[in-house]
Amino acid sequence: MFLLLFTLSRTTLSSNSPSITADQRALLALKSHITHDPHNLLATNWSTSISVCNWIGVTCGSKHHRVTVLDLSSMDLTGTIPSQLENLSFLVLLRIRHNSFHGSLPIELTSLHRLKYLSAGNNSFSGEIPSWFGYFPKLRGLSLYMNNFSGVIPSTFGNLSKLKILLLYNNNLKGQIPKFILLDMRQIEYMSSSSNY
């Protein structure tokens, strides 16, 4: 009986290991893109000696033990977002608001098909709002407020049939509010695009 249990536990661990390793590698890539961590939150806690599910800001699902939530809100972090985050394939919520992330968001994030909430407000992201934001089939909340985004609201936002919250205020956007937001996105419960152009 002991031998059977030991064999089963080894099989379970080995089957979970590649997934956890993929999640761990993705998060370590993010850590390497952090140039300033004034409170040493990631520097001291995000370690290979600790299970990734116990890392600060990380929540894992109870069924698959994969990363489902990454919440780095208000940690005063500075850095960029690496493409390797695409490997967090079970991610449902990505919250990086109230930091100093800059640059652009990588297109590889479109691999996150389970993503329901993306909160990147109050950072220093720049450039146009990526049109590929319109290809998150389950997205319910998108917060991009208080950044340096420019250009217009992408027409692909019309594909976001489940979106309920859209926060775009305090950017450098221009043009008109697209008609599709008023006509096709009737599921929207709250939207703010003030303090733009």
From TrEMBL:
Pfam families: LRR_1, LRRNT_2
Keywords associated with the record: Leucine-rich repeat, Repeat, Signal
Keyword Repeat in annotation: yes
Gene3D superfamilies (alphabetical): Ribonuclease Inhibitor
Domain Leucine-rich repeat-containing N-terminal plant-type stretches: 22-60
Protein known as: Leucine-rich repeat-containing N-terminal plant-type domain-containing protein
Species for this entry: Hibiscus sabdariffa (roselle)
